[in-house]
Amino acid sequence: MEHAPAEVTSFVGRKRERSQAKSLLSDTRLLTLTGAGGVGKTRLVLRLAEELSRAFPDGVWLVELASLRDGELLPSTVADALGLHEQATRLPTSQLLDYLADKRLLLVLDNCEHLIESCGQLVAKLMKAAPGMRILATSRQALGVPGETVFTVPPLPVPEPGTPIAADVSRRDDAVQLLVERVAAVSPDFAITSENSEMVARICRRLDGIPLAIELAAVQMRSLPMAGILERLDYRFELLGKGRRETLPRHQTLRAAIEWSYELCSADEKLLWRRMSVFVGACDLEAIEYVCSGGAIAAGDIFDLVAGLVDKSIIFLQPGGDQSRYRLLETIREFGVELLDPAEAAVVHARHWQYYRDLIRRADLDFFAPRQMEWFVRLRVDQPNLRAALEYSLTHPGEALAGLESAAALHIFWVAAGRLREGCQWLRRALDLNGEPTRARAHALYGCAYLLIVLGEIDAAMPMLKETRALGEQLGDASACAYANLWTGAAVMYRGDFSGAIPLQEAALAGHRSLDDPFGIYFALRHLSMAATALGDPRAESFEEECLAVCEAHGADLSRSWALWVIGLGKWRRGDVAASAARVREALRLKAVADDLAGEAYCIELLAWAADDTRRAVRLYGAAHTIWEKVGSTLVEFGYIKRFRDPFEQRVRRELNDDVYQSLLREGRELSVDDAIAYALSEEEPEGAPSAAEADTSKLTPREQEIAELISQGLSNKEIAARLLISQRTAEGHVEHILAKLGYSSRTQIAVWFAENPEHRA
Known about the structure:
Blueprint: H1 15-25, E1 30-34, H2 41-52, E2 60-64, H3 74-81, H4 92-100, E3 106-110, H5 116-129, E4 134-139, E5 148-152, H6 174-186, H7 197-206, H8 211-218, H9 226-241, H10 250-263, H11 267-276, E6 283-284, H12 285-292, H13 302-311, E7 315-318, E8 325-328, H14 330-339, H15 342-365, H16 372-381, H17 383-393, H18 400-409, H19 411-417, H20 420-433, H21 439-455, H22 458-475, H23 478-494, H24 498-515, H25 518-535, H26 540-554, H27 557-573, H28 577-594, H29 597-610, H30 614-631, H31 634-638, H32 642-655, H33 658-670, H34 673-681, H35 702-712, H36 717-724, H37 728-742, H38 747-756
Parallel strand pairs: 1-4, 1-5, 2-3, 3-4
Antiparallel strand pairs: 6-8, 7-8
């Protein structure tokens, strides 16, 4: 499953709920799992998605919404989770509708409750446009969409009073099993005995079988005996339940468990818990030390306090890369927000903004340098907190100018990350608040203009560039004037006027040289190389080599990957095909590290043009085409690439008959992005995706051939089961066997094979 977090603890129970949910999902296209916080909706939906993954040839995709606060960003967030880059001429919702129209995938929307209206509106549109898609959602309330089926996730079963706990582990109630496993994790010698079994049962009943409450209680076994845990729970619940005749509500039970865990923390741990609630999503230790220190907590004490809260299961550790990250579960974060008094909140939110403002400044100053790739990855994982920081700057008095400077500094990141419309949204908001003629406004204008150019909205970009130039001249800001020339030249080039672009880029290059601005020099040389290559200008090669030299001198690998692609294009145009392919493969390796989807598409397509083997060329072209669908830039459709693509496509179509061409194209399109990259970097045929002619069809039984025919007709597993009077589970098993025998990875490949081999009809 794409974007799914790794499970750090075992999944316990829920056999009945998993079976019920699967049955419901076979009859509905939208299944919403509801229930109180802490009841285990997310863990259940992730397990369901994993178990259902083979039934969806276009994959299972997770969209985590807990850290998203702006409903307007929901469509682009879903598109980003699907690996789509923002398209130029359409809004993200329109892009999603088109992309998903023919897909058979499972979309998992986790934590919808705080965006209930936005989620409901988007889901309704997606369901109407994509009949082959299924949606699993988790929320504390239903989305309210026609056709929605709601499944309330119950707490885990607990032992009835007076019922002994079964000696057989497999027959124990799920709540008991969860408590036992989690206690054993912190106290390995723990086992259920005749002496403690009744206390175990009472704890599970007292906590109403709520998984989060049970896990919070279990970690206290490090320092408290089970009798002590039960005594404290009884006291807490009696205190909260005073004056009530009714049974304690489950949400009150969870709150009691969280409050109890809170009271067991030291004063400094409580303070850190409250302060950490200002973070949105995960953060690293450096951020926690800056934002949460002060007063009673020294920065040097933060690590030990964080470690203590990790041990208590208040903070969750997310290992990854060179630096671990930490987060609070949403329910626990909300509790911290409630306890953060206004004066304390004002200080911590201001420090949060100051930290991320400084992070953006450091990234901007150090971006065209050896840490370029590191900064790109860092900013991408910090996006939820960057959004929160920018929102603070644009809504608090006295911070709007700093917010404008920060938004402007992020414009290159938004391009590289494919978050073009979001970047435009932040920049336009900041520009509206800062109408004075300042250097910051000039730089924000050309940053926003560049985003619009990449989106294909050149008419909207040109007035911004005109104002940038005017401000640069008025303020004596040579940098603003140089960037006005740079991006105006880019706009002219992407409109197809290569001759008109060169003088503007030359002026930009001269301006950036005078300022010793290596990033501007790199971009001007890159655009000069592209324009000169398109024109057959002999200066192209010198532009290319200097562009690469600038990147290498500063160790900027992400920019270097584009310089290598430009060199590869130039060498291919000049007939040095082998050298071209070598350079482009070098670029592709760098782009794969950065997960630069657009760059990967550029590289794989150029490798298709340069391939000696026509069949391989078409497979690569098909693979690039699938990635372009995710990228969607009009620069491909109307601009630079199209002038080279059309002759290539005409050539390979002449060399292959249409059936073979279409078959090879489909094989390439079936490759995942990772498989496409691996294929492009090798000289071998793609593993796991044999052509129809290569598939070993002799192993199929008559029944499997019959099912293959039904798959080719577009029938689902459920429809196949009904047609053949077999269970859906049996039909799913047959499909899995067919995939394994043919060496395929999707139902689409089975359908293509069957259509091309009519002799296998049952």
